[in-house]
Amino acid sequence: MSEREEPRVGVYVCHCGTNIAGVVDVEEVAKAAQALPGVVVAKHTMYACSEATQREIINDVQQEKLNRVVVAACSPKMHEPTFRAALERAGLNKYLFEMANIREQDSWVHKDGHKATEKAKDLVRMAVARARLLRAYEERELPVGERVLVVGGGIAGIQAALDLADSGYKVFLVEKEPFIGGHMAQLDKTFPTLDCSTCILAPKMAEVARHKNITLLTNAEVTEVTGFVGNFKVKVRQKARFVTSECTACNECVPVCPVAVPDEFNMGLGLRKAIYKSLPQAVPAEYAIDIENCLNKPNLLVCEKCLEACSPKAIDFEQPREKELELAVDTVIIAIGADPYDPSKGQDYGYGKYENVITTIDFERIIAPTGPTNGKLLRPSDLGKPQRIAFIQCVGSRIANPELVGNPYCSGICCMVSIKQALLIREKLPEAEITIYYIDIRAKGKGFEEMYRRARLAGIRFIKGLPAEVLENDDGSLTLVGENILLGELYEHRHDLVILSVGLEARKESEKVQKLLGVARSSDGFFAEKHPKLEPVDTATTGIFLAGAAESPKDIRESSTQAKAAASRAARLMKEGKIRIEALTAEVREEMCVACGICESVCPFNAIHVDGTSKVTEAACQGCGVCAASCPVGAITMHNFTDEQILAQVEAALAERPEEKAIVFTCNWCSYAGADMAGTSRLEYDPSVRLIRLMCSGRLNPKFVLRAFELGAAGVLVTGCHPGECHYQSGNYRALSRFQLLQGLLRSLGIAEERFGLEWVSAAEGERFSQVVNAFADRLRRLRAAPEEQEMVEVH
Amino acid sequence: MKVLYYPGCSLKTVAESFERSAKLAMAALGVELVELERWNCCGTVSALTTDDLMHQLAPIRNLIRVQEAGEERLVTLCAMCYNTLKRADLWVAQHPEELAKINAFLDEEPDYRGKVRVLHLLELLRDELGFATVKERVVRPLTGLRVIPYYGCLLLRPREVGLDSAENPRILEDLIVALGAEPVDTPYKTQCCGSYHTTTHKEIVAKRAHAILSSAREHGGEVLISSCPLCSFNLDNRQRLVRELYDGFAPVPVLYFTELLGLALGLDPQAWISEQHYVDPRPLLEEHQLLKR
Amino acid sequence: MLELSSKELQRAVEELSGQKVFACYQCGKCSASCPFAAEMDLTPRQVLEYIMDGRVEVLNSNTIWICASCFSCMARCPNGIDISKVMEALRQLLLRSGRDQLDLLKIPEADLKEIPQIAFIAGARKLIG
């Protein structure tokens, strides 16, 4: 279809049974649509999404030579794909379709039939105005190969790597430590089955090492990622191991090494040598030299003990200290895991000060046969056998007080960790008194409640009420002071060993990885999934997936499940061999571009670069439109969300009685979905608002706002995702700074600042959306009622 | 260096040794404590209800006096004064509309502009002079003296006015070490002394004093230091009642931290030690040869 | 006792204290931190539970008078509730209706000489309306 062709628009107004027609006079809406410029066909229909109506639309397109279609029905999030497919069946480009949302955003939220009908007419007028300016776009296809980068070699990374490698994909598994296995390798037994952690993990690790499709890079960190799905370029910095594959793991080198340092794998509870491995079953099997602590420095050999002891001559101090590798991959899986909360940060319960106060992860090393006590349950201060052992739950968890150190969420695993450990203690020390101090026991999971019951039957005491403090006694025992809240009595209980049940928090490296990969994190610091229910292992960036505790605290089973899901999502992309990219990208009109570089600096996706003039990397562009809104000369066009299309919507919305109407700009992902949520929840709100959907609040060009006020709009409200939750990472911050600039400008134009608002609404906040709209409408009504007062305000 | 300082009522009566020792010790460190003119009661406790503007007046009036003196900093000694003045200042900073009401009400006074920083003398020592400098000036290291640092509540809580960590403070310990003495850690160092219950519920206060002091003794402490006249009274004078109620209780002398500072700087304690101490500290000081010049 | 409904009590406490009492999940750290809990008929945690349950008899508790605003509870509350302000609100509800707890005239002469003034002023502020 040529762009100069006169628009011939077909409009179909849906009854949706009585969902719409029960409130809105759909016949009148269709009649009004008929009179709009460019409209050739205007009909109303019982169910627009029915196959019969779809066929009718296809027929009209062909018979009446329609070149644009508008359906006034439900939310585009519901049926836009349905109608776009119908257009394609009719031989029309799918981008020549527009929906007017007269159900979720009209009939479901307004009771007054007259006002709802007037609003529906406006919404159709806006849709037609936009439709007249729509253009056809071809979606690009990108090739996607079969190479995947897995970042992190814990259980999640291992599981994802193995599934993909088994399916024939080439996997690069990058682990920053010299050995893989992550936290799972530190555990003694796993809940609720009490099987030995190493016993089930070691075969998986060994498989990773020998799999022909897996390239294992230990001691390695990703330092740079550029590109996009099907074409990621990754730089990896790998530190030298100084031990070659000639190593037979005979252990001759370890006893002769003169250096002993705290063993991080054992949580500092024991010592290790400068040449070491974490576990007998460690993978890779070769020992590693910790060069930071080794007496030898590059080009300076002062100690040759290990060299002398090594019969296969596997030690090589000549290795370059680090090397940089470049990988090309098609997809990426983030599996960096989580850190256990460190109670010394918040000075919780004397951790770090009293030797016999330890964490659950410390305790795993104490009770593990591979740990510093060879699995003997001894307390740190005097290596005595503890007889009275306490667990304190929720340490660093469920802290909603911003003045305290800790995390607001529940990690969901710590209750089971303590219960498991309590049962393990019961096996080793049948006479020990074991007490778990808790507030709520969270035992949701297969076999979890049964394990909790087993613990109670085994005589483990559960006391409801957290201690406020731990006091150390002369004999190294500890007194816990608290309230047994079921009895309403204070307690002072003595224990020989106190174990703090700590949750998981986002890895310290999360921020770095976030920046490297350009993916979002949620406010708790963990990586954000694309959709919490329906896309739980995808990120908002195509081709990057999440596995394990990098996304939220998880136990081993959940980490495995999610890793396998991430592997299958990555495989699905790579198996297809190509990917279609929605045509919502930016386009630079090079003749207008002044190469100022602002677009490059604001793009969150590295998708636009100045090279003579600005150039868009279409495959990387996510279509947020922040660049277009920032371009000082208007040289950037957003496909399917052009300035002209948006201005046409503004003008159509304000064609009649503009002084009674407020324009609400929403972002596609949060606030538009929040408005839909208000609809599905049937939350009534003021009918004076007219919504215009942008992909991101960062797309808001000041001229949209100025045009609305110029046409006499009562007010303009901008809505977007909450700070930190932007689908495009930072677009909402751009909206905020633009809002603040515009406020000043509007003041100078004599427009009361109350007429311009900015609010954050998430996709789940239907109620908030309705409250925000009502409050804004109220504010505008009060301003209209007291114009003199408003003027006085302006004079000041 | 001259520093504007706020004494508060107790330093002029039952806690004279606090003020005297502070002035002498600071003078020895080259700091002159200049008393704020026309000061009034600090209010002693903070207004804790949202609608209580009336009890913000006393502290704010004092801050206006500081403003009039052309100063931006006010040093306090008494922990109660420190807490009340600092909290009022923070509160009006967070509630500008309420400050406007207070300013309107205090129409005989200039408006408070919110530019005064309230400091405790300990902060001045730590952050401006530095404990390292203090240590250099020590002429009589308190070697071997085992001192219990007692913080109580109001130097540390709420967190927004606290001059150190609420759970694990170090400032008094660091001072004690700088003076050559040995700090003794007890879990009671941040617990309440019983406060104003000393007027009507002496037995509650005696119970608190007993817990705090016996723990101090058990951990090997010989003398306790405080920065609050009320804490000092409750922990010192109420030992009379503690001895009646608890058999075998061994008394513990209580000093203000400034007294300890003065001793280490080589000053003669006779210049400030008064009969206001219930447990006479002199025998202990004698034992450590700290009374001779 | 004051003539208050459950809802009025809850509203008055939340308004006067400015605290979100209903955020409490009853962990008991406040009671355990309170140096006076042993003297109290209701532990601080129970005071919050009484308010959430709308029990006006919380105003009869000796707890609110024993609390000396030492702020130990609020320093440890995981939900950021300043319980000392909740206690103050309960005290004020009674004090503002003329239920004074302290008569300064009854304090013995010897005490007046010996005890620091700040104790009397603080006591008067906490116990007299």
Tally of contiguous helical segments of chain B: 12
Radius of gyration of chain B: 19 Å
Q: Tell me the structural class of chain B.
A: alpha/beta
Cα(first) to Cα(last) distance of chain A is 56 Å
CA-CA gap between termini of chain B: 26 Å
Number of strands of chain B: 8
Specify the overall morphology of chain B: globular
- Our count of domains of chain B comes out at 2
Estimated radius of gyration of chain A: 32 Å
The domain tally of chain A reads 5
- Return the CATH architecture of the largest domain in chain A: 3-Layer(aba) Sandwich
Describe the global form of chain A: globular
Q: Assign the structural class of chain A, choosing from mainly alpha, mainly beta, alpha/beta, alpha+beta, or little secondary structure.
A: alpha/beta
Order of helices and strands of chain B: EHEHEHHEHHEHEHEHHEHH
What would you say this structure looks like, in words?
The complex is a heterotrimer of chains A (796), B (293) and C (129). Chain A has 796 residues and is α/β, with parallel strands linked by helices. Chain A has five domains: 1-139, Rossmann fold; 141-238 and 322-335 and 521-581, 3-Layer(bba) Sandwich (FAD/NAD(P)-binding domain), CATH 3.50.50; 241-319, Alpha-Beta Plaits, CATH 3.30.70; 339-505, FAD/NAD(P)-binding domain, CATH 3.50.50; 616-796, 3-Layer(aba) Sandwich (Rossmann fold), CATH 3.40.50. Chain A contains 22 helices and 38 strands. In chain A, β25 (478-484) and β26 form a beta hairpin. Chain A is globular and about 90 Å long. A four-stranded parallel beta sheet of chain B has the order 2-1-3-4, sandwiched between helices. Chain B has a four-stranded parallel beta sheet with strand order 6-5-7-8, with helices on both faces. Chain B contains twelve helices and eight strands. Chain B has helices at residues 16-28, 57-68, 79-94, 96-105, 121-129, 131-137, 171-178, 202-218, 229-236, 239-245, 257-264, 282-287, and strands at 2-6, 32-35, 73-76, 117-120, 146-149, 182-183, 223-226, 254-256. In chain B, α2 crosses α3 and α5 packs across α6 (131-137). Chain B has two domains: 2-121, Glutathione S-transferase Yfyf (Class Pi), Chain A, domain 2; 140-287, Rossmann fold (3-Layer(aba) Sandwich). The mean pLDDT of chain B is 95. In chain B, β5, α7 (171-178) and β6 (182-183) form a beta-alpha-beta unit. By secondary structure, chain C is an all-alpha fold. Chain C has two domains: 6-98, Fumarate Reductase Iron-sulfur Protein, Chain B, domain 2 (Orthogonal Bundle), CATH 1.10.1060.10; 101-129, no CATH class. Chain C has helices at 6-17, 29-33, 44-52, 63-66, 72-76, 83-95, 109-114, 117-127. Chain C is globular. The two termini of chain C are 16 Å apart. Classes of the chains: A alpha/beta (796), B alpha/beta (293), C mainly alpha (129). Chains B and C meet through α8 and α9 of B and α1, α5, α6 and α8 of C.
